[in-house]
Structure formats: C-alpha cells, structure tokens
Specification:
Elements lengths: L3 E2 L3 H7 L3 E6 L11 H12 L3 E6 L21 H15 L14 E4 L1 H4 L4 H7 L6 H5 L2 H7 L9 H4 L1 H16 L1 E7 L3 H15 L4 E5 L12 E2 L2 E2 L9 H9 L3 H10 L5 H13 L5 H15 L1 H15 L4 H5 L3 H7 L5 E4 L6 E2 H6 L8 H9 L3 E3 L2 E2 L6 E2 L9 E6 L3 E7 L1
Parallel strand pairs: 2-3, 2-5, 3-4, 5-6, 9-15
Antiparallel strand pairs: 1-6, 7-8, 10-13, 11-12, 11-14, 14-15
Length: 417
Amino acid sequence: MIHNLMPGTEEQLLKERTTAYVGIDPTADSLHIGHLVSIMILKHLQNCGHRPVALVGGATGMIGDPSMKSAERNLLDEETLRHNQNAIKAQLSRFLDFDSEAPNSAILVNNYDWMKDYTFLHFIRDIGKHITVNYMMAKDSVKKRLNGEEREGMSFTEFTYQLVQGYDFLYLYEHLGCKLQMGGSDQWGNITTGTELIRRKVNGEAFGLTCPLITKADGGKFGKTEKGNIWLDSRYTSTYTFYQFWLNVSDEDAERYIKIFTMLSREEIESLIAAHKEAPHARELQKRLAREVTVMVHGEAEFEKAVRASGLLFGNSTAEDLKSIDEQTFLSVFSGVPMFEMPASELPCSILDALAVKTSVFPSKGECRKMIQAGGVSIDKQKFTDPNGNLTSDHILDGKYVLVQKGKKNYFIIKLV
C-alpha cells in the first residue's frame, strides 16, 4: 500500500503516537471506491494507535486540484459543500472511530473553516513569500498542465492550489500537532510543498507518505464501469452492484485487492491465495474479497441481501427471494433485460395476450401456449402452468413490474404504466 515515503517517516511512526491526515475532495455527497485506498491507510493508522485526521477540502474543493487533471473543475457553493461534508463523515464512521474517548480518536476537519476569513493579502504575505515560483513550477502536476495540449493552459487559481494545500498541512501542524500527510501518489508534489512550507515558516519537521494509484491488471482505471464510479452510497450504486463489482474482478486483481481493501491478517490472505491457486474456478478469493468489502461498507444485513439478489439470476432462488428485494436492486440485477410497457388498467389480461400481443416476449400465442404447457414459463420466479390463465395485479412486484422467465436463462420485464 506504500508507493513513496519521505525519509524519517517510519522512524516517526515508531517513535510516538503521530497525527496524520488525508485530504478528501467533497465534490459529491458520497465517496467512491477510488477513495478507499487512503481510507484504509487511515484505518490501519488508527489500528496501530496513531490519530487519523480526515480533511474535507471545502476550500480546496472550490478551487480544484490540477494533479492528474486535464481540465479545470466546476466550483461548488458553501451549502453544497457542507451537505457533502456531513454525508462523507457518516460514511467515514464505518471505517474510523470518531466518537470514543481514546487519545487517537479520529477527527474530521474542513479547510474552509480556516480559509474563509483569510484575506488574499494576508495569505500572500504570510505564506506566498516562503515558496518560490521556481519551486512550484518544478512540480510534475504543474509541468504536465503547462506542457499539455490544451490551449487554455493552467489558471492562476489552479497554480496556487499547492500553496493552499501546503497551508492546510501547516495549519494542522500548528493546531493539531499533525506531522504526516498521506494520499495517492499523484499528491506527492502537493504533500512535499506542505513539508517544505512547515520547514521554512516554523522550522518544523513534517513527513509525507503516498499509496499507489490502484489500476486493474489490464491497465484500466480501477473502480470505473460503463456506468461510471462505484459509489459507497447505495443511492448511487446499489449494494448488489457494489458486491458484483468485487465478485467479478480478475484473479490477478483479487490477489492485490484483498491485501489492500480488507483487514484480514497476512496469514489468512496467504492461505486464501494458495487455496485459490489450487481451484481458481471456485473463485473463493473473489467471494471472500466481495464479502469483506461489502460488509465493511454496507453491513452484514445488506451483504446478505446482495447475495440473495445474486441468486435471482444465477441460482435456485424463490419467489420469496424476489419479493424481498427493493426496486433499485431489482433493476440492478435485471439491468439490460428487455423491458416492455403495458397499461396497468388492462389487468387482468389473458397470459397469452400479455406475452404475445401486448408485449413480444413470444412471437405468437401458439408458441407461448406450447412453452407454458411444457413448463418453460415462470412469472415472478413461479412456474405458470395454465395457458388459459390470466396475468393479474397479484403478479405485480413493487407496484409496477412483472418478471417473466422464458426457459432457463431468458428474462423479460413488463412494466405497468
């Protein structure tokens, strides 16, 4: 999990309880799995007796970090930032202990609180004079943008970002005794600016540690799917979709991810990997990874629901299992399944009409009749055996859906409108 660390960092962590922080961008009211690496680093830190600080970048979120970005970001208003901060703290509470009386209880801070009344003149007088333009220009994040293809180059606002982040580190150093900043490897330039500012302004010693940016074994971006980010909030990514993401990673990725995204011991991980190599087809490594991360983020009950939902497509699930899932999970499980609309006022309706006239689940009534007689049609996971029967309001799930199964693998949804 360690990509780079400044000399003396390990010695500092071994010497005394150390306060360390990670900055989190509050541009949304949920974290996504791209944030999980630095959150796990904070979790390990707290487990080892050190004090974690999660800094929500209310001020820096208004500017936008140029690191690894090709364009400037949209700016957020204060009300949105505060809402996002509260939502992020609730999520972080699943990983970190904020509430105990322990000396290493986690702290959440927002840099907007100390930046909002800091005037520009005071900032450039107190902070700007300590860091040279030459030093700032030498940073990779700046060089890449200035030498990039984009005509608009880099705004002064973005150029000053590393100074603002450096001041965060100085502020936390002075007010919380924070001696270590951690983050993704793309943050190295910003972190070292902070340690340099602390050295030059208050003659203090501070440290930096970065973790690798996680990618997939094929070089693709970790945590991105065709539908975008995998979020920790089930409003944006259902628990089922979240669970499936981890369940479907490659063998190579599962071997790396289980070391990074779980709190399992080294011995247990090594035995899991060894067992997986003996029987890779069983995908036990992926199953354990998916279980550990889903329980950690969503809790045991939601994990159990996700497992039951997985059985709807691939296992011998029952009508009760189908009825127990919510609409979001239902639509996640059957994403991509053909969907037909039908007026609810037309129920009850002959099953043959419903499946072969009002929708095109079957090309003809005759074919539909034959398949029902052969036992090949299920409605809501129950065999439908009467070709003269009706589709009724009793078949509606969540007040608007009917799940039709033709044969073993072909699913269709009828949406009542």
